[in-house]
Design goal:
This protein is an alpha+beta fold and 235 residues long. It has seven helices and twelve strands. It is elongated and about 55 Å long.
């Protein structure tokens, strides 16, 4: 059974949407039916300028000659709406330890991945990490996890972010449906393991989330965790 948001709830989400997310919602659902946005996990596909949300089991029925563009997996809940990137899960550090505390978001219930990622990139610009073992291959400057997500780009979506704790917890809750969509679209699934969020705990640690069960814990910033980008409908 399909659940839909009320008109007031959609208007509230609409008012909070960033410019790109707002335009994306209108493009996918159409302005006339924007207030009937379905809740659930969807394969987000597109051919040229025609974008659709399709359930994974329905996409599997598509004729083999039809090969739509995989935009990502759209996750829509009562209080969140975002797209999980269709490719490129990497392993990276969050940043150098003993740095930061420059206005990074620390609210683990935040859904604002755009602002959280912006603050990381601003707070850690030029911060140098030198591998204590002396292996320069693992030296870096800045905040690798956030920088990877922001640099990731695909057609028609200009802003990709490091997910917040709340977004990762939602992803963990719906991991089976999300990976079913990725398999249906021929995209790499989300590996099971720990993922970096865009939420900082203190100068030493940031929050990570386990994709097994959504368990959340603080982790040393220079430890490697999985990273997968999201693009928010709302922030």
């Amino acid at each position: 059974m399909e659940t839909r948001l009320s008109k007031m709830e959609v208007m509230n989400l609409h008012s909070k949407a960033n410019a790109g997310g707002k335009a994306l919602l209108e493009m996918v659902f159409g302005k006339e039916v924007f207030n009937q946005r379905p809740i659930g996990v969807w394969c987000m596909i597109g051919t040229r300028n025609d974008y659709k949300l399709v359930k994974s089991e329905e996409l599997g029925k598509t004729p083999s000659y039809y090969q739509p563009q995989a935009i990502g997996v759209a996750v829509v809940t009562e209080d969140a709406a975002f797209i999980v990137a269709p490719h490129n899960t990497i392993v990276a550090q969050w940043s150098k330890r003993e740095a930061g505390r420059n206005g990074c978001i620390r609210d683990t219930d935040s859904l604002d991945s755009l602002t959280a990622t912006d603050r990381i990139l601003t707070g850690y610009i030029g911060t140098k990490y030198t591998d204590p073992d002396g292996d320069s291959e693992y030296d870096f400057i800045g905040a690798p996890a956030a920088e990877f997500c922001r640099s990731y780009s695909r057609r028609d979506f200009n802003t990709w972010d490091l997910p917040t704790v709340k977004q990762l917890q939602i992803m963990a809750k719906h991991i089976k449906e999300i990976n079913a969509c990725f398999r249906a679209m021929g995209c790499p699934t989300l590996p099971m393991g720990w993922y970096w969020s865009s939420i900082e705990k203190d100068e030493f640690c940031a929050w990570g989330v386990s994709m097994y069960d959504g368990y959340t814990d603080d982790t040393n910033k220079n430890d490697p965790n999985y990273v997968r980008a999201v693009s928010a409908f709302q922030n």
